[in-house]
Amino acid sequence: xxxxxxxxxxxxxxxxxxxxxxxxxxxxxxxxxxxxxxxxxxxxxxxxxxxxxxxxxxxxxxxxxxxxxxxxxxxxxxxxxxxxxxxxxxxxxxxxxxxxxxxxxxxxxxxxxxxxxxxxxxxxxxxxxxxxxxxxxxxxxxxxxxxxxxxxxxxxxxxxxxxxxxxxx
Length: 169
Ligand SMILES: [Zn+2]
What we know:
- By secondary structure, the chain is mainly alpha-helical.
- It has eight helices and no strands.
- The chain has helices spanning 2-7, 15-21, 31-35, 43-56, 60-81, 115-135, 145-159, 162-168.
- Helix 4 (43-56) runs antiparallel to helix 5 (60-81).
- 17% of the residues are buried.
- Bound molecules: zinc ion.
C-alpha cells in the first residue's frame, strides 16, 4: 500500500497514451500536457490516497502516516529531479483543488535523465535486491506472491540462501 502510494501521483500521466494516440488527429487530446502534475500531484490527491489507506488497512494510523510520507516523497523527488527534456520544471500545484496559489518548483532542479537520478536509482535497486535476497520480500510482492518467490529464489540460487547459511553456521 505504501509503495503504491509512492507512485499513485503519476496516474495523472496516463493521459500520455491518449495524447500520443491522437497527436496527428484534427482534435488531439492534450491530457498529458494539461493534466500531468495537476490532477495527481497535490494535497487533494494526497488526502484521497491517505483516505483509501485508512479505509482498507488494519493498522490505520501507521498506514495513513506511511502512505502520506510515501506520496510526498514522490512530490519531493519530482521537484528535485523531474526537469523535462525541454527544460520545463513541471511545477507542483500543491494546494489543488483548494487553491492554485502555490506552484512548488526549485531553481536547482536537475533533469530526469541526470546522473543524480541514476545514482539514486542504483543505490535503491541495490538495496531492493539485497532486501529481497535477505528477507524474501521484493516489490514484485505487490503484483504476485509467486513472482516474488521466483525472484527471491533466483537471487538465492545465484548468491546463496541466507536462511540456509544461517542454520548451517
Ligand atoms: Zn510525479
